[in-house]
Amino acid sequence: MPPTAAPDTKLGPGDVFDVRVYGEDELSNTYRVSRDGAIDFPLVGRVAVEGLEPSEVASRLAKQLRDDQFLVNPQVSVFVKEYNSKRVSVVGAVAKPGTFPLTTGMTVVQAITLAGGFSNLADRNGTVLTRKTDDGTVRYRIRVDKVTSGQSPDFPLAAGDIIYVPERLF
Q1: What is the chain's percent helix, strand, coil content, to nearest 5?
Q2: Could you give the CA distance from residue 52 to residue 65 in angstroms, rounded to a whole number?
Q3: Nearest-CA neighbor of 158 among 4, 3, 5?
Q4: DSSP letters of 58-100?
Q5: CATH 3.40.50.720 fits 87-165, yes or no
Q6: Which of 85, 95, 99, 152 has CA 20 to 30 A from 74's CA?
Q7: What's the Rg (C-alpha) of the chain?
Q8: Buried b vs exposed e over 35-71: b needs ≥16 C-beta within 10 Å?
Q9: Nearest CA among 38, 53, 48 for reference residue 6
Q10: Tens-place pLDDT, residues 31-63
Q11: Cα(15)–Cα(30) distance, integer angstroms
């Protein structure tokens, strides 16, 4: 059984988030992290956000607004809408193999569903989850029939996970 993946909530290119500045509607908006890992924020200009937690982005924006003397005591909050920089792959005997954005709490069964479900030739109980860890690459066999029948828990995914569904041997 794979260990529970620690959520990776750091921002990366393509991620979309809302910034809200209390009492300053014209500064509140939705932003997408550019390829170079930054956003263009009103009054402040270009701000590097790649690799930062949402709370760190809020602190950085508030500090910049205060330091540049635009606001005395800005209250800034950041809410992530889409983590497009974090993806999982589903390959093998599924209807639509591909790479999908990782959403908070996404599981193996949910990722397979995003890939259109199993093909007619899928070996559902031969499904393999491959995960890179600090100690190297680890593979886990997932018996999806047991998960879907409630006999085993579903497995949370982490950014970069690969799910491989082999074909059955007749």
Answers
A1: 20, 35, 45
A2: 18
A3: 5
A4: HHHHHHHHHHTTS-SS--EEEEEEE-TT-EEEEEESBSS-EEE
A5: no
A6: 85
A7: 20
A8: eebbbebeebeebebbebebeebbebbbebbeeeeeb
A9: 53
A10: 999 999 999 999 999 999 999 999 999 999 999
A11: 11
Structure tokens at 145: 């029939």
**C-alpha 121: how far from its chain's center?**
30
Summarised one tens digit per residue, pLDDT across range 97-146 is: 999 988 878 999 999 999 999 999 999 999 999 998 888 899 999 999 99
| Residue 112 tokens, joined | 């397979």
